Amino acid sequence: ELLEKEFESDDEQEEEEDEDEEGSGGSEVRGGMLSSHQAVSQIREWVIQRYINRPLLLKSHGDRKFHIRTYVLASGDLTVFVYRHMLALFAPHPYKQSAGDLNDHKAHLTNTCLQAKHEGFDESNAVDLFWNLDLPKEKLDHIFDQICRILKDTFSAVASESTSFQAWANCIEQFGFDFLVDEDCNAYMLEANAYPDFKQTGENLKSVVEGFMAASVATAAEEFLLDSKDCVSQDIQKMMDDDC
């Protein structure tokens, strides 16, 4: 219901475009392609996630819910690297424990792409560096280690699934993974993005994206051109290789 409120305008626009393309009395199948609504109706596999109703909240950031964006590089078949400079993306309103007011979607949705649509959006208040969060270093390290383990398990699970994931030699691919942390500092994967929206990083922290791009190029050059397994950049950490 929360997501419906945010995206209903986009859905209405898509429906209008569909109607325009179909014309009066036209078929819903256009050029051999199903409409978006038909495509959704054909889906037979769904992922159900447990809602984390007691997320980690930080007084220094106004007790607002946040998720962690982690950039990942997959190289060859299959070496995986995680970029250490992760982001924390915050909801605009404070979060109340046990889910609180479900009608206040600004306390629940942490995506900056949604917040940017609203008047008064302050990028500096919405995005911060993970390693700058007001937590003891051992807790930050603990969260980062969990993220690395989850990523390794995820790529290990799909490495043999050629129908849904293919790792090609001499190729690299960049991903954006999102994680949520609960009040006990347990990390949970929210989603994986094969085409990450780098705009979520924002203008103030665009150096994170620039650094990830530079580290990706340096890593690919060393993997493919220098025939070396030692990573050039200290900012990108190997967590899985094709020998595992």
Task: Describe the structure in your own words.
This protein has 244 residues and is of the alpha+beta class. It has helices at 2-22, 36-41, 112-115, 123-126, 137-158, 206-224; strands at 66-75, 79-83, 87-90, 127-129, 172-181, 187-193, 236-240. The protein contains 6 helices and 7 strands; from the N terminus they run H-H-E-E-E-H-H-E-H-E-E-H-E. Strands 1, 2, 3, 4, 5, 6 and 7 form a 7-stranded antiparallel sheet that branches.
State the helix count.
6
| Structure classification | alpha+beta
In terms of per-residue confidence, which ranges show pLDDT below 50 for 5 or more consecutive residues? 10-14, 21-31
Strand content: 15-25%
State the helical fraction: 25-40%
H/E series, N to C? HHEEEHHEHEEHE
Mean pLDDT: 78
Question: What does the largest sheet look like?
Answer: 7 strands, antiparallel
Using the CA coordinates, give the radius of gyration: 20 Å
Shape assignment: globular
Number of strands: 7
Spatial separation of the terminal alpha carbons: 42 Å
Oligomer: single chain
Brief description of this entry?
With 244 residues, the protein is α+β, with helices and mostly antiparallel strands. It has helices at residues 2-22, 36-41, 112-115, 123-126, 137-158, 206-224, and strands at residues 66-75, 79-83, 87-90, 127-129, 172-181, 187-193, 236-240. Helices cover 31% and strands 18% of the residues.
Descriptive terms for the model:
244 residues, alpha+beta, 6 helices, 7 strands, globular
